[in-house]
Amino acid sequence: MAGGPPKALPSTGPHSLRDMPHPLAGSSSEEAVGGDSTPSPDLLMARSFGDKDLILPNGGTPAGTSSPASSSSLLNRLQLDDDIDGETRDLFVVVDDPKKHVCTMETYITYRITTKSTRVEFDLPEYSVRRRYQDFDWLRSKLEESQPTHLIPPLPEKFVVKGVVDRFSEEFVETRRKALDKFLKRITDHPVLSFNEHFNIFLTAKDLNIYKKQGIALLTRMGESVKHVTGGYKLRTRPLEFAAIGDYLDTFALKLGTIDRIAQRIIKEEIEYLVELREYGPVYSTWSALEGELAEPLEGVSACIGNCSTALEELTDDMTEDFLPVLREYILYSDSMKSVLKKRDQVQAEYEAKLEAVALRKEDRPKVPADVEKCQDRMECFNADLKADMERWQNNKRQDFRQLLMGMADKNIQYYEKCLMAWESIIPLLQEKQEAK
Amino acid sequence: MEQATPDPERQLQPAPLEPLGRSDAGLGVTVDEEAERAREEGSGGDTMTHNNFWLKKIEISVSEAEKRTGRNAMNMQETYTAYLIETRSVEHTDGQSVLTDSLWRRYSEFELLRNYLLVYYPHIVVPPLPEKRAEFVWHKLSADNMDPDFVERRRIGLENFLLRIASHPILCRDKIFYLFLTQEGNWKETVNETGFQLKADSRLKALNATFRVKNPDKRFTDLKHYSDELQSVISHLLRVRARVADRLYGVYKVHGNYGRVFSEWSAIEKEMGDGLQSAGHHMDVYASSIDDILEDEEHYADQLKEYLFYAEALRAVCRKHELMQYDLEIAAQDLASKKQQCEELATGTVRTFSLKGMTTKLFGQETPEQREARIKVLEEQINEGEQQLKSKNLEGREFVKNAWADIERFKEQKNRDLKEALISYAVMQISMCKKVGFGFNEDICIFRSTYKFL
């Protein structure tokens, strides 16, 4: 880590967190991995991470790279990956308890961030702080700045069209809270990002604004390095594996976009269907009032349709709250990943250009100057980081979508089960008097 | 429900085939014993296909529909649909059926039959015909009368109409009905010869005409009110149901769009590929399942429609009663005023204003002979009037008795039929939920197994 970490200011006070649910109590998608954490090779990944012989593009092994810092961080990474099995996890973060704050200038929501950790980077075992969306946005920019070779998870959209969506409605706040929780958990799970200084401050600082104002430069070495990559060079060809990632992301984002549109359309149709159902059921009640023997059966049918309507409403709410946000999140994720790919291209372009420049100088001793070596080093680290993150991303994506699609199928099943029960329960009511006759 | 053991006597004699409600016989229809017995046993439900009142048990079916072209009254070419009516008699002993009659009829002939029955059996709730034009359609169903689905549903409706008549204790005996099933040519002429159109009270056609009845029969006013409400509520129900069907169709069809995109997505995935592919396939299956679901629901809608139209028939009976009551009151009024006139003439006092009285005052008294003559005429008229009133009263009471009997029969039939309709609707929904739910369950199983090796 670059420099000594500034002493973390005491947080709002770690009140007893024992009464809070343990982060692992409710299984989230990432933590439900359990035993099946051996990722089978994707068409994009050269190697899996369990491999000790990590081969880098320049043919060297971790220990043999010319930048000791990167190799140690690589080793660290390997170790930590082995540890992420749930049992040896040493950092837990939860986002909950949204609260509305009304001030003279504005009204906004804050969320409670609870952190439990045994890591040395944390002074206290537990922290509890309050953050608002702005703070998350700040964190994300800082991470992008300081860890440009890594894939930073997406945040839920910043802007909401006022009037269309109520920023303070329960549904909106809950959807946002879930997304923010996901965001932090993804960072927590990341072997490099979770050690980032800004992340630490975000989790622990009592008053984040002090840090924001101070504008403390906590850039990592890599961040600093990549920051200075000039954008003037154009890459000739993207290496095959990265081109494949790029293509994959393009198609992936496209398909998700289509699915998002279809899902929205379905919800719209379901709502219109619901409107009609809500008129349909009561007509049976009106009829029932006219009848004698048929009164009960008709009333039963009315109630039944009412129950089905309610079940449908629950289904559409679930789709809106659980399905759509995940699609959007992955679309945003893909977009930011494509930017990282482009950045990588720039780094490679610069390296290749400088290398070419040296070759053209036609010296007798083509000694590779220091700055070209730096470029090479930069590029190799970038590639390694990116590949590792890509693999991690693929795994998480598989888990997330598995859960998502199974969850949606499950919600649909629940809807049909509720309808089934409603209709089955009135059959005896309808048949009753006929037999008594 | 068990059937009545056929009276051996009846089996040997031809069944009475005269229409019991003849123009000269007035409206004094009596419900006889057999009809009563049948009603007690329940003449609906499974006895629909068997007619206990005929010589042998018969089965009626409208088995085919055919498009025809012909020339109409204006000698213009027209296209219409003809329906094949087959009548089979079922041998009592071995249950074998033999085709006895088969002829083709078009919708307008069914209408003619019904109009005839309405005139000759005003106290009966006459079974309705299926709708002339498709109404309450949801968008995918065509409103075109030539559409094969519509024709098919109409065929079933027409068959139902004939079966309802055949199982009605009184209507089944009608000669014209018998001829409808058996006499292909000249049937129309035969019906028209009965002169029923002349008998039909044109006043009834004026739907909005109100007859101010001074002493309405509460039972009938209540019943009329009920039939109005029933018509209104079933119409509303059918309209909303059609909209619900429309929307549900939309929901299912949009899911179909998932099919292609999941398939395309699966192409770029490794582990998830299979799961996505089958999810996409499932969405296609899901989307196409709506057609069958809604077709089944149309059958339910048709059952409701029948009772929508039945409500109309019920109302017609009330109207006829209202008209009868009105005529009765007018006749009574008329009689009362004639009596008064007579009295005044006899006693010489003029209490009521009359034109004769005026002219007498203006142009001089009439001679005693003239007065005697007038009194005599009035007395005759009064006599006649009293006779008529008596018979009208009798008619009225008979009508009420018989109408009410049929109304009770109708009520029980209605409750039975609608309950069954609701049950089969519920069963339909249940089977749909199970089928669709199962499909989604398959999805989960596939995802679960696909990810086993992750």
TrEMBL record, chain A:
Q: What is its main location?
A: membrane
Q: Which GO terms describe its cellular component?
A: early endosome membrane; phagophore assembly site
Q: Where in the cell is it found?
A: Early endosome membrane
Query: Which keywords, in A-to-Z order, does the entry hold?
Result: Protein transport, Transport
Q: Quick one: where's region Disordered?
A: 1-44, 54-73
PX domain: residues covered: 89-210
Bias (Low complexity)? 63-73
Output one GO BP term. Answer: piecemeal microautophagy of the nucleus
Q: Which GO terms describe its molecular function?
A: phosphatidylinositol binding
Give the bilayer topology: Peripheral membrane protein
**Signal sequence, start to end:** none
Q: How does it assemble?
A: Heterodimer; heterodimerizes with SNX4.
Protein family (similarity comment): Belongs to the sorting nexin family.
Q: What name is this protein filed under?
A: Sorting nexin-30
This chain's source organism reads: Callithrix jacchus (White-tufted-ear marmoset)
- Source species taxonomy: Eukaryota, Metazoa, Chordata, Craniata, Vertebrata
Automatic annotation (TrEMBL), chain B:
Write down a Pfam family by its short name: PX
Q: How does it sit in the membrane?
A: Peripheral membrane protein
Q: Which UniProt keywords apply?
A: Acetylation, Endosome, Lipid-binding, Membrane, Protein transport, Transport
Claim: Protein transport is one of the keywords in the record: yes
Q: Does the keyword Acetylation apply?
A: yes
- Give GO terms for biological process: positive regulation of autophagosome assembly; protein transport
Segments forming domain PX = 61-187
Principal place of residence? membrane
Q: Name one GO molecular function term.
A: phosphatidylinositol-3-phosphate binding
Family membership = Belongs to the sorting nexin family.
Q: How does it assemble?
A: Heterodimer; heterodimerizes with SNX7 or SNX30. Interacts with WWC1/KIBRA. Identified in a complex with WWC1/KIBRA and dynein components DYNLL1 and DYNC1I2. Interacts with BIN1.
Function, in words = Involved in the regulation of endocytosis and in several stages of intracellular trafficking. Plays a role in recycling endocytosed transferrin receptor and prevent its degradation. Involved in autophagosome assembly by regulating trafficking and recycling of phospholipid scramblase ATG9A.
UniProt protein name:
Sorting nexin-4
Native source species: Callithrix jacchus
